[in-house]
Amino acid sequence: MSQEYTDFVINSFGPKATPRSRRIIGSLIQHIHDFTRENYITVDEWMYGVEFINKIGQMSDSTRNEGILVSDVLGLEALVDTQTHAVAERHGSSTAATSSAILGPFYRENSPVYKNGESIIIKEVGGVKAYVSGKITNTQGEALAGAMVEVWHCAPNGLYEQQDPEQPDFNLRGTFYTDKDGFYSFVCLEPTAYPIPYDGPAGGLLQFMDRHPMRPSHIHWRVTHPSYHSLITQIYNREDPYTEDDSVFAVKEDCVVDFIKADGKIAEEHQVEKELRFSVALELEEFVQQDRKKIYAQQKALEDHLHEKSRLNSTTK
Ligand SMILES: [Fe+2]
């Protein structure tokens, strides 16, 4: 069926559809029709796709989000994340804001609040202990007091606590607040590479693509402060070969870090073998919003241009 049929479907929207839903769903219809025509999708293949989507829902529950996993394997979450948080202009700042990275499916709200320097290890699960410290600043380099820093990572067996009946609730997760100088610190484990769950649709996609399921060893971060744009990111161990070959395409160069041997005083005081210094710069929320408005204006101009073009085409037919 031709473009005329696709236009007929897109033009079926009622008058109460919002401009945004008209644009997004209209665009989805256009792309999915083009995809179907270009690839000569058959009824059997379409039904396979329908069952694939059904399976994503059936496999998801409070401890597993298969929809996010499928998005990740397709590189979609990394793309959405980057374009949502990209700051188009530097706004006269002296440092770039720290890059964001995908949230992933294992975040939990309300992790235990610890004092700076305390450990997020509730139960010993092996691994190498590390002391992580740094400053949270704005992009002018000014310290941000009272910023909330949430961190979480998996155990050396590759499982997050909610996936693992052997770990207590909230093991290897914690919330910290920066002091008056923007300083935070905590003890965790040097992170471990792990496979994303691959016994469902996301794993099926990986097989079709002849790809491995491994994520490089990483620690997740969520940093929030009232006036600043919240940052969700991950830090990656430079020594891990998967840092160059992430199954979900989430690695950002400024978040690749070096765990070094802890110096004597820190090693003794915190009972750790390794140390990591990692500082984070947050962008002002108003700057991110200004940039977003500019992007929406550009999109609107493009949409108006395409609309006008299609109107002129139809009047000359
Ligand atoms: Fe993770």
UniProtKB/TrEMBL annotation:
GO terms for biological process: catechol-containing compound metabolic process. Residues 132-160 form the Intradiol ring-cleavage dioxygenases domain. The keyword Metal-binding applies. Pfam families: Dioxygenase_C, Dioxygenase_N. It comes from the Eukaryota. InterPro entries: 1_2-HQD/HQD, Catechol_dOase_N, Intradiol_dOase_C, Intradiol_dOase_core, Intradiol_RC_Dioxygenase. GO terms for molecular function: catechol 1,2-dioxygenase activity; ferric iron binding. Keywords: Dioxygenase, Iron, Metal-binding, Oxidoreductase. The keyword Transmembrane helix does not apply. Gene3D superfamilies: Aromatic compound dioxygenase. PROSITE patterns: INTRADIOL_DIOXYGENAS (PS00083). Its cofactor is Fe(3+). CDD domains: 1_2-HQD. Belongs to the intradiol ring-cleavage dioxygenase family. PANTHER family: DIOXYGENASE, PUTATIVE (AFU_ORTHOLOGUE AFUA_2G02910)-RELATED, INTRADIOL RING-CLEAVAGE DIOXYGENASES DOMAIN-CONTAINING PROTEIN-RELATED. This is Intradiol ring-cleavage dioxygenases domain-containing protein.
